[in-house]
Automatic annotation (TrEMBL):
It comes from Bradyrhizobium cajani. Keywords: Signal. It comes from the Bacteria. Pfam families: OMP_b-brl. Residues 36-230 form the Outer membrane protein beta-barrel domain. Coiled coil: none annotated. InterPro entries: Beta-barrel_OMP, OMP/PagP_B-barrel. This is Outer membrane beta-barrel protein. Residues 1-22 form the signal peptide.
């Protein structure tokens, strides 16, 4: 009986000693936890763009040579609306600034207007008709103003050149001088020229998915001047260079556009799970 008690006492002492030794040993640190990498930033990269829209055009005046002592005023000068189309390529630098270069065609818009000329013993009017179209190359920069419910308002500005072409330009004139009423018709050759152009933009962009955005935008365009080619009177009694110039063409454009991002965001893949063997 005594030997059994001795064995129990020895076993208890050995167990207590093992527990004390284990308590003195350092606790092993848990395996490190893998934090997922930050999602890719929602900016940066090339994109393509395209727009369709309508123009609402104006001109300041029609200028021409006037004899000394005569005065001339422009009346009813304006244009019909016309369609526009453009394509471009751009780059987004960060989440608020981007820039692009576009080529734009602005369709033919019918022109109408007249000049009234008054002088000593003379009164007359020139009624102008024709059409106007443009090719525009422009570099634009935009600032995005923040995003709410996937909608991003933006503003921008652009500079470039506009090739303004007048087609089918015609001057139907009537005058009363010295008690005599006379009429004349002058035809002008089609002509175009390049001008400095600039624009201001504002609009809303809606991101349909990470690679596709739809825009509704307004643009104010200043396209420079336009002039017809040489004139010829209907009876071939006179012809030569024209002094007529349509000054300061401007337009208020409404456009619907799309943007395609060319840089696909990387797909997130979680790191492999490491287990202790």
């Amino acid at each position: 009986m005594r030997s059994v008690k001795s064995l129990l006492a020895a076993g208890a002492a050995s167990l207590i000693s093992s527990m004390a030794f284990a308590a003195d040993m350092p606790i092993a640190a848990p395996p490190p936890m893998y934090a997922p990498p930050a999602p890719p930033a929602d900016f940066g990269g090339w994109y393509l763009r395209g727009d369709v829209g309508m123009t609402n055009q104006r001109a300041k005046s029609i200028e021409g040579t006037v004899a000394p002592g005569f005065t001339k005023t422009t009346e009813g000068l304006g244009f019909d609306s016309s369609p526009l189309f453009d394509l471009g390529v751009g780059y987004r630098f960060n989440n608020w600034f981007r820039a692009d270069v576009i080529g734009q065609y602005r369709g033919k818009a019918n022109l109408h207007g007249s000049d009234n000329v008054i002088g000593p013993g003379f009164v007359g009017a020139n009624n102008y008709t024709g059409s106007k179209s443009e090719w525009v190359v422009m570099a634009n920069a935009y600032v995005d103003l923040g995003t709410w419910w996937c909608v991003t308002p933006f503003i921008g500005a652009g500079v470039g050149g506009s090739y303004n072409k007048l087609s089918g330009f015609r001057d139907d004139g009537v005058s009363f001088s010295g008690g005599t009423l006379s009429n004349s018709v002058a035809y002008f050759a089609d002509s175009g020229k390049w001008n400095f152009a600039w624009a201001a933009h504002a609009g809303l962009a809606y991101k349909v998915n990470p690679g596709f955005t739809v825009e509704l935008a307004y643009s104010y365009m200043n396209l420079g001047d336009a002039a017809p080619g040489n004139y010829r009177l209907f009876d071939n009694s006179a012809s030569g260079p024209s002094s007529i110039k349509i000054k300061e063409l401007t337009s208020h454009d409404l456009k619907l556009g799309v943007r395609w991002d060319l840089n696909s965001p990387p797909v997130y893949a979680p790191p492999p799970l490491v287990t202790k063997g």
